[in-house]
Amino acid sequence: MSNIAYFPARPVLEDNKPGKRERTKVANRQAILDAARAVFGELGYEAATVRDIIRRTGLASGTFYNYYKSKEEVFDALADDGARRFRPILRTEFEKAVDFESFLRGAIRAYFDFLAAEHESWRINRPAGEVFPHARATPEIQAVFDEVHAAFAKVLEHDNAPAVDLDYFAAACIAVAREVGDKMLERRPVDVDGAADFAVRMILGGLPALPRP
Amino acid sequence: MSNIAYFPARPVLEDNKPGKRERTKVANRQAILDAARAVFGELGYEAATVRDIIRRTGLASGTFYNYYKSKEEVFDALADDGARRFRPILRTEFEKAVDFESFLRGAIRAYFDFLAAEHESWRINRPAGEVFPHARATPEIQAVFDEVHAAFAKVLEHDNAPAVDLDYFAAACIAVAREVGDKMLERRPVDVDGAADFAVRMILGGLPALPRP
Amino acid sequence: MSNIAYFPARPVLEDNKPGKRERTKVANRQAILDAARAVFGELGYEAATVRDIIRRTGLASGTFYNYYKSKEEVFDALADDGARRFRPILRTEFEKAVDFESFLRGAIRAYFDFLAAEHESWRINRPAGEVFPHARATPEIQAVFDEVHAAFAKVLEHDNAPAVDLDYFAAACIAVAREVGDKMLERRPVDVDGAADFAVRMILGGLPALPRP
Amino acid sequence: MSNIAYFPARPVLEDNKPGKRERTKVANRQAILDAARAVFGELGYEAATVRDIIRRTGLASGTFYNYYKSKEEVFDALADDGARRFRPILRTEFEKAVDFESFLRGAIRAYFDFLAAEHESWRINRPAGEVFPHARATPEIQAVFDEVHAAFAKVLEHDNAPAVDLDYFAAACIAVAREVGDKMLERRPVDVDGAADFAVRMILGGLPALPRP
DNA sequence: CATGAATGAGACTTCATTCAT
DNA sequence: GATGAATGAAGTCTCATTCAT
């Protein structure tokens, strides 16, 4: 069933395929990222040490520092990574949307799907009360927030919706999505549809609009 | 309206005049708490060390351990302290409330007032992106959440409001309050009334109910 | 023959004798200094590491840092120590002197005696070409130089000697003393008298005044 | 006057036009030397690392090791370089000399000229108290010292001067030259003539012979 | 109880050097 | 011969915690 080709040691450089060096570099960077994700997941950000991450990669200690300067830097790389993967998804939702409601529904649904998929890597053993990693404001994460903000502005304008305090509103929406998403992950089975429906109704109509369980 | 049993008030000493030993002990404990608040404020929780706290205290290093076992413990004491001071306020609002709306408005307003007052102690120099200290789920903070939860349940029942997913709802409300509160603190002048109005409307009616700026 | 009193464990604090704590502190500081002297002697300044010094003291690694911040700092302490011990000797010579010649002779003689006495601690295994530790300009060493300078000025003035470029002259005298002293230490037996006589004559009369061997 | 055999001159390539590989090799070696000079000048010998030198070179780290085995080796190459350039100068002075005085004057003058010319490369940013690089006794530097020693012996013998302790004397002369030379470099404007005159008189006649400023 | 020096584990980091490309 | 990433030994130093005074 497997048809994975086993590459011979000597890299073929016919076209502009990267040489072996380049490939190990990429692999190492990824290995560090993976190890870091696992370690942060198990110990939480604070308790984790660079040492722990290194140990898990199997690389030499010095190698870590060829890629990242500190625990903080890997962490941000990790966070950015998530944000960077989410942005195109968000953009797609924006493009598909016809009005605010459809955008909101699509975005939240996409976010919850994303959360559920990422869940495994992050949720394991996180010390109670430790902050969700994406809570840190890396530039990439900030960009996502900004994008949400901008999308809201555009879509609401398109709807000829009356002006609101967009700063507060976007913050509140993100907060609702984050918190409900968090709670969603704690339930079994994980009910993305239900959670998304709740969050959307909450934002669009507040308490009276909430679904009856 | 309220018949929730609270923890007993701090026992009042007969003559209200603690002996010397007692006074020193209380003073030391307070000194540590104050130093810790300042240090956490300046360095953030992670970067702060027990050493830093001790240094600022002026006490001997060993003395610290007569009061707290670790940085985490002081932090929790600090957080609990906030929660413990907020709980009676919350309780008062609960007692004054006549329906859900009045409770929500009162509670949020009280929370924002509380935030604004505490602001000074916490906000200074916090590294960008660091999590607000009250984000940690200490028992005392959890108790506040639980209390909100319970109060919501009672008040909504009293209103004969239709059932909702209280867990999601309370989480969402707290999230909105927290986030809008945070944003409020960033604006000058700090507008408690406006922020509270926004949060309440958001929760009660969602987007269509929001105030026009 | 020995009448050294063995002090009981419990320190007697009748008068202001230092307690045990104080005494270990002094002892530790001295132990570090001694270890450092030995290590610098054996490995040279550059090759020596803080670790080496610690190892030799038998103290815990952290203890070192309770006393000195770095290798450099111990080194300077060591150098200062020498300078600090030499200054009173120099002063005495200054006070005994009746003219420049007697001061010069006394000072150089004292310096060479000092060198010879210190010799043992420093000379062992010093890598060829490594600089003599007193070559570093610590404040205390600078003070000795300044004192020589000042003494020269005073004594020459007292002699009604014609003005010379004191800066060059003092530097040259110190250089001669240092270098001849160094060479002196390499010979067996160490001939302090001969070396001092050479240096003094060199300074007072140059080549024609030198002793015939 | 001189019949001292010197090391052979650098072999002149037949066509004076090195092949490409040869040119690169020479250029790299020189680049490393230049970078090292700069780095030692800026950081001092001890603080400087091979890394620093490589970085400044722009070469790959591995390349360094095709030329030198260690920081020490480059340093010695650098020092030797100075000594090697100075030796012919010294030799010329020796050949021109008619007696001790003329040799001494010529040699010191030449040394101070040399110092003043080299000054720029070395003096910049040298940490206070760090030793002048040529203080290290590399073989090539030792050779200069030995040559001074030998020249002194020959010239003094030629002068039918009475025997002196040549070892002390040469050491003292070098010390005076070094120290006065150092001080000379600190003054503005740099007065080579004055400094040389001072050093020569000091050696030839001691204090009474010094110039009045 | 307060004190504060000693402890030593261990985190962080750099560096010289190697070696596959 | 040039390259530059990987290596891992080793050094620096901090920190929480203990415990004799």
From TrEMBL, chains A, B, C, D:
InterPro entries: Homeodomain-like_sf, HTH-type_TetR-like_transc_reg, HTH_TetR, Tet_transcr_reg_TetR-rel_C_sf. Residues 49-68 bind DNA. Pfam families: TetR_N. The keyword Transcription applies. Keywords: DNA-binding, Transcription, Transcription regulation. Gene3D superfamilies: Tetracycline Repressor, domain 2. Residues 26-86 form the HTH tetR-type domain. It comes from the Bacteria. PANTHER family: HTH-TYPE TRANSCRIPTIONAL REGULATOR BETI, HTH-TYPE TRANSCRIPTIONAL REGULATOR RUTR. This is AcrR family transcriptional regulator. It comes from Caulobacter rhizosphaerae.
